[in-house]
């Protein structure tokens, strides 16, 4: 996900440390991880050097194995940071990181191009799941505690008359990132954001996650936290329910990963996809995430009444349709939506990060 700020700076939401080691930078020893997409073997040793860093010994199996790999985490040697790190690096004084890999995520029939980008920040720009990085283009207007992942869709422009893509106009930051190569340097700022952090006071809570496109980024970080780490202080035993809306099957992001969670954790994970160009809703129209929400509305409202958290991330245009659907459902249930929404926000159950 990337959009421009002041026409030059783009914000991309990280997906959690590569394979999502929990929050802040970590001490990682003898980590050997072979990713099925990049065939990249990494070995790192990062020493914790301030109170925000936490040390763990990590062991990871290949993601190509039959079950979702587990990360064995020893008791923390340092106290957890109580507050997320915020704006360690600012636009005027960014941190220079290095591109590790750039991978196209979508298939040939997907509209546009979305890339998974791994950057090496050396453990100097720690963050929590759900926070954001800023990326400053160098031109013009994994489980290691040292890398972060970005999910970036290449921005393109269309001619207002022909409605066809105009190759003479390209997004600045998203194209800079998608065109980057291993070893390239990038300037990053942040981390920023406290809205989309995963609450951990109740490990048995229900988390309903609604995303469009690259908005799935923070939720991927959540799910890796829930299902790929063995952390003494957080053993997830609740329900994670992901709704993902994209154009077609070729546009699905990290579908293999989510499908594996569904197979290995059927009691703790649900996964519903809305493919607008391939599926029809009950009225015969295109299938959007709000239509999926409507299908499960009674169950979703009951979960919210019992304290479930609900998250929304993606294009700003997703929210009016979702809000309208939730309002209609509330009215059918004899509830006042404005009052219910106010109570959800007051209870800190409502989390929105749209762009």
Q: Would you give an account of this structure?
A:
Residues 1-79 have low confidence and may be disordered. The protein is built from seven helices and 21 strands. The protein folds into two domains: 71-192, Elongation Factor Tu (Ef-tu), domain 3 (Beta Barrel), CATH 2.40.30.10; 195-354, 3-Layer(aba) Sandwich (Rossmann fold), CATH 3.40.50. With 355 residues, it is of the alpha/beta class. The protein is 19% helix and 29% strand. The longest helix is centred in the last third of the chain and has 15 residues, at 318-332. The strands form six sheets. It has an eight-stranded antiparallel beta sheet. The termini are close together. α3 links the parallel β18 and β19 (269-275). α4 packs parallel to α6. It has helices at 172-178, 217-227, 255-264, 289-295, 297-305, 318-332, 337-346; strands at 3-5, 9-12, 14-17, 26-27, 33-34, 41-42, 54-55, 71-72, 95-104, 114-120, 132-136, 147-153, 156-158, 165-170, 185-192, 206-212, 229-230, 239-246, 269-275, 309-314, 350-354. The radius of gyration is 20 Å and the shape is globular. It is found in: Plastid, Chloroplast. InterPro entries: FAD-bd_FR_type, Flavoprot_Pyr_Nucl_cyt_Rdtase, FNR, FNR_nucleotide-bd, FNR_plant_Cyanobacteria, OxRdtase_FAD/NAD-bd, Riboflavin_synthase-like_b-brl.
Sequence-ordered SSE layout with sheet pairings:
Elements: E1 3-5, E2 9-12, E3 14-17, E4 26-27, E5 33-34, E6 41-42, E7 54-55, E8 71-72, E9 95-104, E10 114-120, E11 132-136, E12 147-153, E13 156-158, E14 165-170, H1 172-178, E15 185-192, E16 206-212, H2 217-227, E17 229-230, E18 239-246, H3 255-264, E19 269-275, H4 289-295, H5 297-305, E20 309-314, H6 318-332, H7 337-346, E21 350-354
Parallel strand pairs: 4-7, 8-17, 16-18, 16-20, 18-19, 20-21
Antiparallel strand pairs: 1-2, 2-11, 3-12, 5-6, 9-10, 9-15, 10-12, 11-15, 13-14
